[in-house]
């Protein structure tokens, strides 16, 4: 027998490392990176996945003294109570409108700001505008809301002083229900526009400069460059961020609404998250509040899946 032939025949039949051994080898190779990732994994296990167990109180008549397992099982009673209450449709309408207005008005602004800022040729002016635009992102939501309240104050607010200067009457913005949604959306745009524009500016920086040079040779103007090169190149980034925005459209920021609203504006400002806060922490109806929170999370999940599906069919881009 030819020893070379026998060696060749025996080669393919040799036992290969199993999948588990291969994974262990990869883990050993990347152990430094895995150790860096460990705190993040522990955080999510303790503070994201661990508390999911507590959602069972939405199906029980929870008592602090009897505990989660010892409380009486009531099934879907809290959900039926919530859906049949007068608060349900009011909360649904307010949450949907605030999220929809924030998406329709707040989402395009960072895109337009990034494209326009990219067209500025004066580098010093460009950097100054960009710096001032994302400064609000470094301020806490409490400071942002305090600035908004002071700016709109009927006594010393700059806007009301301007209205008086041009001969108009003061407007009590913070207690006027018709102004709350405008204030919420406008302040959200002001606080997040510059920070979110950084993502689009980074995407613009990655566009091949030869595309612009070729278009200029063909006689394209700046408007044509923005329309036919910059915006199409940004479209994949826009679609991904749109999916994330649409998925969180129903998860209105709890802190901001809580700091800006008052009993005079409850009819237009009260959303699911603030309702859960009042029912759970103030009225101590923990089971009912958990049921409302689960419903809000399910709606947000449906919105995320729907936005991902629409984006995949229309633009060919999706998160999964």
TrEMBL record:
The chain crosses the membrane at residues 33-59, 96-117, 129-149, 189-207, 228-254, 286-310. The keyword Transport applies. It is found in: Cell membrane. Keywords: Cell membrane, Membrane, Transmembrane, Transmembrane helix, Transport. The keyword Flavoprotein does not apply. Residues 92-307 form the ABC transmembrane type-1 domain. Its main location: membrane. Pfam families: BPD_transp_1. SUPFAM superfamilies: MetI-like. InterPro entries: MetI-like, MetI-like_sf, UgpAE/MalFG_permease. It is a multi-pass membrane protein. Belongs to the binding-protein-dependent transport system permease family. This is Aldouronate transport system permease protein. It comes from Paenibacillus lactis. The lineage of its organism: Bacteria, Bacillati, Bacillota, Bacilli, Bacillales.
């Amino acid at each position: 027998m030819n020893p070379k032939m026998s060696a060749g025949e025996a080669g393919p039949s040799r036992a290969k490392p199993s999948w588990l051994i291969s994974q262990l080898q990869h883990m050993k190779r990347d152990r430094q990176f895995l150790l860096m990732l460990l705190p993040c994994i522990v955080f999510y296990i303790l503070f994201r996945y661990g508390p999911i167990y507590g959602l069972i109180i939405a199906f029980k008549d929870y008592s602090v003294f009897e505990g989660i397992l010892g409380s009486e099982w009531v099934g879907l009673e809290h959900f039926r109570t919530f859906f049949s209450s007068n608060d349900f449709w009011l909360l649904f309408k307010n949450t949907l409108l605030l999220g929809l207005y924030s998406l329709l008005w707040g989402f395009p602004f960072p895109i337009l700001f990034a494209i326009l800022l990219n067209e500025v040729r004066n580098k010093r002016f460009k950097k100054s505008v960009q710096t001032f635009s994302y400064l609000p992102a470094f301020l806490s939501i409490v400071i942002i809301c305090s600035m908004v309240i002071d700016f709109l104050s009927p006594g010393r607010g700059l806007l009301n002083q301007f209205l008086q200067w041009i001969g108009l009457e003061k407007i009590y913005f913070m207690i006027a229900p018709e102004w709350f949604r405008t204030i919420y959306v406008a302040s959200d745009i002001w606080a997040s526009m510059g920070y979110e524009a950084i993502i689009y500016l980074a995407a613009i920086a990655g566009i091949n400069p030869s595309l612009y040079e070729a278009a200029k040779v063909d006689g394209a103007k700046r408007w044509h460059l923005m329309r036919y090169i910059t915006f199409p190149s940004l479209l994949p980034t826009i679609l991904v961020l749109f999916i994330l925005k649409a998925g969180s459209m129903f998860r209105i920021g709890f802190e901001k609404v809580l700091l800006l609203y008052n009993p005079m504006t409850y009819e237009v400002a009260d959303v699911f998250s603030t309702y859960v806060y009042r029912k759970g922490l103030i009225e101590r109806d923990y089971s009912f509040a958990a049921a409302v929170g689960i419903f809000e999370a399910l709606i947000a999940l449906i919105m995320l899946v729907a936005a991902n599906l629409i984006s995949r069919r229309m633009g060919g881009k999706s998160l999964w």
